[in-house]
Amino acid sequence: MSWFDKSIMARKGVAKGAALSRHEITEEVQGKYHYVYGAYVEPVLTVDPGAVVSSETHDAFEGAITSETDKPTEKLNFPYLNPQNGPIYVNGAEKGDCLAVYIESIVPRGPQPRGTTVIMPEFGGLVPTADTALLTAPLPETVRKVEVDVETGVKWNDRISLPYEPFIGTIGTAPEIEAISSLVPDYYGGNMDLPDVAPGAVVYLPVNTKGAYLYLGDCHAAQGDGELCGVAIEHPTVTTVRIDLIKGWTIAAPRLENDRFFMTIGSSRPMEDAARGAYRELIRWMAADFGFDEIDAYMLLTQCGRVRLGNMVDPKYTIGASVLKSIVGEPR
Amino acid sequence: MSWFDKSIMARKGVAKGAALSRHEITEEVQGKYHYVYGAYVEPVLTVDPGAVVSSETHDAFEGAITSETDKPTEKLNFPYLNPQNGPIYVNGAEKGDCLAVYIESIVPRGPQPRGTTVIMPEFGGLVPTADTALLTAPLPETVRKVEVDVETGVKWNDRISLPYEPFIGTIGTAPEIEAISSLVPDYYGGNMDLPDVAPGAVVYLPVNTKGAYLYLGDCHAAQGDGELCGVAIEHPTVTTVRIDLIKGWTIAAPRLENDRFFMTIGSSRPMEDAARGAYRELIRWMAADFGFDEIDAYMLLTQCGRVRLGNMVDPKYTIGASVLKSIVGEPR
Amino acid sequence: MSWFDKSIMARKGVAKGAALSRHEITEEVQGKYHYVYGAYVEPVLTVDPGAVVSSETHDAFEGAITSETDKPTEKLNFPYLNPQNGPIYVNGAEKGDCLAVYIESIVPRGPQPRGTTVIMPEFGGLVPTADTALLTAPLPETVRKVEVDVETGVKWNDRISLPYEPFIGTIGTAPEIEAISSLVPDYYGGNMDLPDVAPGAVVYLPVNTKGAYLYLGDCHAAQGDGELCGVAIEHPTVTTVRIDLIKGWTIAAPRLENDRFFMTIGSSRPMEDAARGAYRELIRWMAADFGFDEIDAYMLLTQCGRVRLGNMVDPKYTIGASVLKSIVGEPR
Amino acid sequence: MSWFDKSIMARKGVAKGAALSRHEITEEVQGKYHYVYGAYVEPVLTVDPGAVVSSETHDAFEGAITSETDKPTEKLNFPYLNPQNGPIYVNGAEKGDCLAVYIESIVPRGPQPRGTTVIMPEFGGLVPTADTALLTAPLPETVRKVEVDVETGVKWNDRISLPYEPFIGTIGTAPEIEAISSLVPDYYGGNMDLPDVAPGAVVYLPVNTKGAYLYLGDCHAAQGDGELCGVAIEHPTVTTVRIDLIKGWTIAAPRLENDRFFMTIGSSRPMEDAARGAYRELIRWMAADFGFDEIDAYMLLTQCGRVRLGNMVDPKYTIGASVLKSIVGEPR
């Protein structure tokens, strides 16, 4: 029995984590991609819990940057960035429920060099931005195109290759009444850029509105902690997720489970607020479902909590706080 | 000739700042109030530049808190807070233009005690919040109802009365593709809670989408710098604004002009980023329109710039940076 | 009777706020100026409460920048910046007491142009710094020398003059066991760069160690809120303060009183923490000495509290929170 | 040949990383422990490069908390916390050099239960503090005493034990003219609370003043990322370090090397500034010593940089940014 059979998704999901139907959102099916997370558009697909959905995702630039001589400021058209597949309407999902999304696989697609990273003005972790607004001149616009391959990884240069470690940069549900840019991460998920949102993990997302409206996109072939210059190895993919629904499990922010740990995810500014949010939710989770007293959980995480920095470049910073399953055991 | 005749609104507006037509948005006309800033709804009113619009605003709680024994957590239904009048569609407004809004008057309405302030869990400047997420227990829920009168002011208690110094807490245009909670301030305006947005001032707002979609609401009878506990003296009003349109004046964030100063407004987190954003825009404005070199403006504002803290409690903090007209003179 | 006769200093001070002796700290008496706040050096002067001390202060660069062609990076020798007069040992002062310092006058000295402001790398509110460490190139080093005169003010250029509004940029007591750079503001005072620390005000400082060890320096001829580029109009002065001692009044951070308001001063990062610290102390003060309930003070300051941004450029940001005397009355 | 033989310490150190002499700082030798990092005290030991020094460290409370019924607020006497061994004067060390400290071993000492963690008012990551000053009541004071053993680890309760993963919480050199509380981390090291500062690692520290004045203490038996409640598993130890000196290698902040990676360490507030500082130094290091162009290093770390959160509770937050040796190779 794999860990997944004991996952919360498998134990509590309406479909018990099973794959009951298969669907594809090709570029053709998707048609217009989306740039906000919201419920003001028609779903591209309606499914029951247990659906497995494969999506043809675009890279964060919708393929607009094809050459190292391209200028991002000329090719990109803010706010039409970070195109998303979906929304997927999940039958039975209502505000207060939880969507469980098991990431089955991410496979690169498109011609080589299919990976793209760039430096562009007013964006990135070590430059002035619209938020950290300074007077100094921007770094030069720079485009880097790299080959991405499942086996040989990301070829940075002749000397350096990085393993192909794909994950979903942006995934989430619609807010109840808002429609928020897909560049933003928040309590509903969105542009978290957190490398743990990878094949083999289950992401738990709050349902804020009837049907949940699941979106996803922005898959990365590799990314360091913080996504330092703001742009990971962006690449188009076929991304396959299994969707289940946990009725009545109300969570305040995204959570994640894999074979090794339970994680809560906080997105805020300044960065300490992202860390506070993630850790507080983890404590509340340990108190609600793992039999800990809150104070005890607070003191125990002081000794064994783990922090993963997702992004330090988006409108909100994202941090995941986690605890090993070997320490906390299984939730009730 | 009053200062207004030399204002940017009067000099550059399509209607030259004149009052050319009059309109009312009564509660009846408004019907459903709005809780997001966006262009996904039908305008409640369409006007040409030069329109004077009087709106019956609700208080931030839409009148739900009527007694000091009310519990905010029982009476309020997040995210249906901070109800807004509008949107007002302005003919001729296009992305890249600027909306000029002269605030003519704010008059309280409704039965006494018509002023309300509250302490509620997870909200306020000196308590844990959803962003600054801590484990300590909240302060007790507290409601304070106070009499608000134009002449006698805000009666805090038998000993203390504050002058009636009303302003518009929330005003702005629709983002291009987003629909954002009216609790949030940002580049399009929104919940800035900045006391300078008061009768006698002109607010300049970026137009992000055709028609501009002007919203306003959340008028305060009095407020200190920072809106410390998160809730000013909220009260229902009739608020009258004159709307003009400046074609081709593209601004990155709200600006403000009154008889004494020019101000730029930044909303971000952490608070230093709000200050940075406001000051950088002021420098850019001085360089673009007042004949200053950027470095010279930077050094001069070091000696005479003024900072007003709007809010330190909303999802983004708001700061206004200003410079006296007596120092910089008139823009070209 | 002036407001000073009712001040806390006059009512509670050992010397009742009176001027009982006069002392001078000339450049010759001072000899070596100091660059840290601490008790590891010999006092330059020992006084009883009631002492009036006139100090010949240097500007923040100890006069090293004499021409607009000087390069700060060549002329300045970090950490030997922001030279301080003192320390002054105050007889009878013990940990837990409060030092009251009434600022009698600040008079410019030295040859014209005696005012200096500069832009230098890694320092300032709108550039990358050692703390906000970014990769973009610094602004060009720039020096501005300006004439400073009590009557005619600060002559910025042929068109713009600013009034002479001097204050003490850096003043405080020694920490108990630390010796901290005079570039830093904190709970003991230090480099607050807060324009309210001006002639006519009383500053209240915590005594952390026997004798208090009062330092002061870094007087500014003019400064805007935030001290944007990091360097106000620095100038050498004769600064005269009257020193009294309030036994047993233990305060957590500097406070200030003038004819109009009571203020508490917070220094921290991020900026919201400076604001939180200042406002919490003000609430505690109102609860301890003005007869307010803490919750009532919190709600009242929401409606009438005032915030002054001192600096947004030093290792800690400084904010003053104040309330009008006309609102809170006199403390017990 | 172990990795250490190729370490920077072994290649560049005056003693070539060798152990040339042995010394002990017992409690008796140490006598008075220290609570500030500075050069205002006499060294407890003077050594040449190549010295191996074993120190009897106290726990962060100097053993004052012996029972779970102790009240920290009664037992502890701020600022006399976090006692440090040293200072150790290193012959030949001058400002601009680098001290290399190889951590040979950490061995617990003292009677069981020798591990201590506590919750105390105004301290910790999820409570109001002196910096994040709020009005809500503190959590109850709580003391947890746990058995700590090299083999069996940290016994949290009957069900949960954590492995013994000791590291030095506080280590650094004296600032040039300051004397800073041992509770603070900064450019000279200090209270970083970073778990990578563990046996098997080399820490590189800036020398700011003649003799370097090395201090260390505050060893932890286990700690999660962020040291959430502010107090790890504190315990007394015998900690053995080997000290070497690299002449003329001027670094702006601590660096670290172990068998797997090179790390730079940033301490600042808000947390994003700690991350910025760490990553900028790593880029500068890669540019100076590993043959990278700065822009290339910036873009590469975006794909493979690693972030470790040390503390989110001290006066400055600490973050380590690292890159695998397998990616960047060896420095020149």
UniProtKB/TrEMBL annotation, chains A, B, C, D:
InterPro entries hit by this protein: FmdA_AmdA (IPR004304)
Enzyme Commission code(s) on record: 3.5.1.-
Enzyme class: hydrolase
Official protein name in the record: Acetamidase
Native source species: Hartmannibacter diazotrophicus
Keyword list, A-Z: Hydrolase
Keyword DNA damage: no
MF annotations from Gene Ontology: hydrolase activity, acting on carbon-nitrogen (but not peptide) bonds, in linear amides
Gene3D superfamilies: Acetamidase/Formamidase-like domains
Coiled-coil intervals: none
Keyword presence, Cytoplasm: no
Any Pfam family the entry gives: FmdA_AmdA
